[in-house]
Design a protein that fits this description.
The complex is a heterodimer. Chain A is mainly alpha-helical. Chain A has 24 helices and five strands. By secondary structure, chain B is α/β, with parallel strands linked by helices. In chain B, strands 1, 2, 3, 4, 5, 6, 7, 8, 9, 10, 11 and 12 form a twelve-stranded mixed beta sheet that branches. About 5% of the residues of chain B have low confidence. Classes of the chains: A mainly alpha, B alpha/beta. Strand 5 of chain A pairs antiparallel with strand 2 of chain B.
Chain lengths: ~525, ~375
């Protein structure tokens, strides 16, 4: 039963990721039908490539730490305080995620942050990673923190624990699983970072993925394949370790405890101000730069970039509003696929973990690591693999519209799993067992116990999946794609030609993408994904 | 919501109706076999035709055209090479001399002599064996910011050598040739101009504070000060057609055109002697499932309707002789001076080495 549940997700990742990867490796290492392992030796003997691997590893670690430092105060802010605009801000956190990399880079190179961290510096890359991943930490940890309630802390305080002791011995361990879960997503994201490093790294800073991209451009498939393999090995190792930690630390809780959030007052004011300021600096400023640039022309304030969004002109293949509808449709489809596949995977993993000592640690962790691969495997290589693997009869899937939402769902899958897995683990076994003893069928347990308790994490996961799809992360996987104009592609086309109108309209379209994202995520949040008051 | 729906309906109706406004093509419409077939066209992301022009082709031939975008030119051709023999499309548009030799070695294309082959400009050569057909040409050139130089009373550079002159220190932005097509073209210009001395020239540029960016967008919009650029540096590697594009895509163009108050010159100009010529070709992919349709499409690309459409859609020059250029093109395109080029075989043999050498010198 449990194995049946994980079969579909495993097949999904296997078909769309592992097989294409294997096809590329096969083509690269058996060029004339004979196994040729010299690329391994070549890579091992090249000190500059070791430098790239080393840089990739430590910049991802620093990016993760920086993101945690900047985002955890905000997670606390959202979880434990009530303030004006809380719901909108909570939704707006996701925006950096969906913005095209070119736009993020523009916000960082021309906005105020350029003064702090100019292009080509390590700081520019780290800050951009923090900007992109902020929502991952705030939203995943924030929900866990809100669900924690005050009762453990209060109990500890009654028993004589000091503030620091409560934080260290009660709150931190209870939050650990969600912190590890979000940190591992951030780490993988930064580890395989491509666009940000390419655009902000000034050609000198290079991750493994950037190196693979350049090798593929030179048709040096051997080196690209070896680098892609090392990337996967490093990622799987990391996820496996993180998975074991998270599992060890997970504590079953009832997430529906009375809410402790309160108005900002007194001693909390200092911490709150700090959290708000950090959030405005990291997220608010770059986004504000973008909005201003969409209404500021050479002659001052103007609406002209916004007024023509319903027209197809010059460089565009469709009116931006038509592209918007395409984006929404593809995004929704991808989110649904990701939720179904991810939901089955989580149900399967948790069932396996609970089904006996033999299964308890090793196998579920292995599935978990496999399903995280879409974030950790080289998108450039997998994209190439899809092109090579899906071109044979009976079906030529290459360049069909089907592949786009599938690839996006593939990339969204790890987010869905990271959000749902800790939450599902925290559903108390005793409640499910009581229900089963009282005669409830597994289906009815799922419907009456799991689903209501998991409504919020499910909405959070859905919001992420939609944002990932809207931002076209997976689209980079599909190298040859049919001409379906979407918002990110519209931005790219506009910025591909010189001229005020093109630049201004690109900013307007990016701002539109931002507004639509907030709208959609806010709606999903209202369905149960928000924070309780 | 209603408004958006209405928009989609209108847009759809517009595309379907196609309003074939008397577009004549040299396609042989008597060939009835292709009617009802689908033609897949692999292009780079910048490919663009006015929808009505494409619709007229579909109407005349009965072919449904499916455009497939494959990234930038290099990425797109690489995909075609890697799937050679079992192509994703029937016809490819957008390969240039950089990869033509590789394509030839891989047997990527099925030779085809286009109907209007003899109408191609005399200075554009059709590659041997007619494996591909030239469609357009464009020059990659250093652009300068007129205002910047005028305000400081400094003369803009007048050739490649000037770029290494300390008087212009820290002013130039180029693209990384490993990741950018114009970046590679500019590297090739220096190879064509200096031969083996290109390395020394790049050393001088590096000492002179050249700024490297990974792609055209960041270089032009992020670093360049001229026109719509928002950066600080007045010299950037871009295209000879960027100055006309600046005028054409300025906010006031429509109003200025109507009132007859178009500016005397574009906000940016082209530094003469810095241009590298890129000819873009189209070819029938070997193993295509619709070769007859692919051939018709190549003829269509050389037809008057397409050739007069591409200047203002892709900002490139037509290869068909006698095609009138739009006024904004004639008026604002800078004079490129001597234009550099290299034989395809030479590029193919040494490109990787040049890029490696460039990386060693410039990025250290």
């Amino acid at each position: 039963m449990a194995l049946g549940l994980v079969a579909l997700p495993v097949a999904f990742v296997g078909l769309l990721l592992l097989w294409p990867l294997a096809v590329v490796v096969d083509r690269a290492l058996r060029p004339e039908g004979m196994l040729d392992l010299t690329p391994f030796a070549d890579v091992a003997a090249d000190p500059s490539l070791w430098g790239v691997i080393w840089f990739t590893t430590w910049q991802a670690l620093l990016s993760t730490l920086l993101t945690l430092v900047l985002a955890l105060p905000a997670a606390w802010l959202f979880a434990r305080n009530r303030f004006v605009g809380r719901n909108v801000l909570w939704a707006a956190l996701v925006v950096p995620f969906v913005l095209p990399t070119v736009v993020v880079a523009a916000a960082f190179t021309s906005g105020p942050s350029a003064a702090v961290a100019p292009r080509g510096t390590l700081w520019a890359v780290l800050l951009a990673h923090a900007f992109l991943n902020y929502a991952v930490v705030v939203r995943i940890v924030g929900v866990a923190w809100a669900d924690l309630g005050d009762r453990f802390a209060s109990a500890a305080a009654v028993l004589g624990a000091g503030r620091w002791q409560v934080a260290r011995r009660v709150t931190a361990p209870l939050l650990a699983p969600s912190i590890v879960a979000s940190a591992s997503v951030v780490y993988l994201f930064s580890f395989t970072s491509f666009g940000v490093v390419l655009l902000l790294g000034g050609s000198r800073l290079r991750t493994i993925e950037v190196e693979i991209y350049e090798r593929v451009r030179q048709l040096d498939l051997g080196t690209a394949a070896v680098l892609a393999i090392s990337q996967v090995v490093l990622v799987v190792g990391l996820v496996w370790v993180a998975g074991r930690w998270a599992q060890r630390w997970s504590v079953a809780l009832r997430p529906s405890d009375p809410s402790p959030s309160r108005r900002v007052s007194g001693a909390r004011r200092g911490a709150t101000v700090l959290a708000v300021v950090s959030m405005l600096l990291v997220i608010g400023l770059p986004l504000l730069t973008l909005v201003v640039r969409s209404i500021w022309g050479p002659d001052g304030w103007t609406w002209s970039y916004w007024s023509a969004l319903d027209e197809r002109r010059g460089v565009l293949q469709a009116a931006p509003l038509v592209a918007l509808m395409n984006s929404l449709a593809v995004g929704a489809l991808a989110a649904v696929i990701a939720m179904v596949v991810g939901g089955l995977a989580v149900a399967g993993i948790v069932t396996l973990e609970r089904s006996g000592p033999a299964w308890r640690v090793a196998r579920p962790a292995a599935f978990d690591a496999l399903l995280m691969l879409p974030l950790g495997a080289s998108a450039v290589t997998v994209g190439l693999g899809l092109l090579l693997a899906f071109g044979r009869p009976p079906i030529d899937l290459r360049s069909t519209v089907v592949l786009v939402p599938m690839a996006q769902a593939l990339v969204a899958l790890p987010f869905v799993i990271r959000v749902l897995l800790p939450a599902t683990r925290a559903v108390q076994l005793s409640m499910r067992e009581s229900a089963a003893v009282l005669g409830a069928s597994p289906w009815s347990v799922a419907r009456h116990i799991d689903l209501p308790l998991l409504a919020r994490p499910i909405a959070i996961a859905g919001g992420f999946a939609f944002a990932v799809a809207l931002g076209e992360f997976g689209a980079t996987l599909v190298v040859a794609r049919p001409n379906l104009p979407t918002l990110p592609l519209t931005v790219a086309r506009l910025l591909g030609q010189p001229g005020e109108i093109n630049r201004g309209q690109a900013m307007a379209v990016a701002t539109l993408l931002m507004i639509v994202t907030v709208g959609v995520v806010l709606t999903v949040d209202q369905l149960r994904g928000g924070l309780r008051d | 919501m209603k408004r958006i729906l209405a928009l989609i309906l209108v847009a759809g109706a517009f595309i379907i109706s196609g309003c074939g406004s008397g577009v004549e093509t040299s396609t042989d419409t008597s060939n009835g076999q292709v009617a009802g077939t689908t033609l897949r066209v692999l292009t780079h992301d910048s490919f663009d035709l006015t929808p009505e022009v494409l619709a007229a082709f579909e109407e005349q031939t009965g072919i449904t055209v499916e455009l497939i975008a494959g990234g930038d030119a290099v990425a797109m051709v690489n995909q075609a090479i890697l799937t050679s023999g079992n192509p994703v499309a029937d016809v490819l548009f957008g390969i240039d001399d950089n990869q033509l030799s590789t394509a030839r070695e891989e047997g990527l294309f099925e030779p085809y002599v286009a109907v209007d082959r003899d109408r191609i400009r005399a200075d554009v050569a059709v590659p041997a064996g007619d494996i591909v057909t030239p469609v357009d040409l464009g020059d990659v050139c250093v652009n300068f910011d007129r205002t910047w130089f005028a305000e400081r009373g400094v003369a803009p550079p007048s050739g490649l050598e000037d770029l290494a002159d300390p008087a212009y220190a820290g002013l130039l932005v180029v693209q990384n040739p490993a990741t950018s097509s114009p970046g590679l073209a500019f590297l090739l210009a220096t190879v064509a101009a200096f031969g083996d001395g290109y390395g020394d020239f790049w050393q001088q540029l590096t000492d002179n504070g050249v700024v490297v960016s990974d792609g055209w967008e960041e270089a032009y919009y992020g670093e360049f000060s001229g026109g719509s650029g928002e950066g600080q540096r007045p010299l950037v590697v871009s295209y000879a057609t960027s100055p006309p594009a600046e005028v054409f895509y300025s906010e006031s163009y429509a109003a200025d055109l109507a009132a007859g108050t178009l500016p005397a010159e574009a906000p940016t100009g082209v530094v003469p002697g810095t241009c590298f010529r890129q000819v873009e070709y189209a070819g029938v992919l070997a193993g295509a499932s619709n070769p007859a349709g692919a051939q018709l499409f190549i003829n269509f690309l050389l037809s008057d309707s397409v050739q007069s459409d591409i200047p203002l859609t892709m900002f490139v020059n037509p290869v068909r002789s006698g095609v009138a250029l739009p006024e904004v093109f004639e008026r604002y395109a800078g004079s490129p001076g001597e234009v550099w080029s290299l034989p395809a075989q030479q590029i193919n043999a040494a490109r990787t080495n040049w890029v490696e050498e460039w990386r060693r010198i410039v990025l250290g």
